[in-house]
């Protein structure tokens, strides 16, 4: 299988699950300047506290995993 580089301008990280591990990785990516907060996304199903944690540092939060699909993304399933 051939691998192709992903352009840094279009790269996104999308978390399926919004637990402590996803939070730690997202915070690290944002704090390091590797990606701006708006290029990180997660899906939070019902826990309002988890939604607020991610929104606090600028990560896009969606209601379902299906909403965060797309190309040029790294998906991390941490459920």
TrEMBL record:
Domain Pyrroline-5-carboxylate reductase catalytic N-terminal: from-to ranges: 12-67
Pfam families: F420_oxidored
Superkingdom in the source lineage: Eukaryota
Protein's name in the database: Pyrroline-5-carboxylate reductase catalytic N-terminal domain-containing protein
């Amino acid at each position: 299988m051939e691998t192709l580089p992903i352009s840094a301008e279009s790269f996104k990280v999308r978390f399926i699950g919004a637990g402590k591990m996803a939070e730690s990785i997202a915070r690290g990516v944002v704090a390091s300047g590797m990606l701006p907060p708006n290029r990180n996304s997660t899906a939070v199903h019902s826990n309002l506290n988890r939604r607020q944690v991610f929104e606090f540092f600028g990560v896009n939060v969606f209601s379902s995993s299906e909403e965060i699909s797309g190309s040029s993304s790294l998906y991390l399933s941490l459920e």
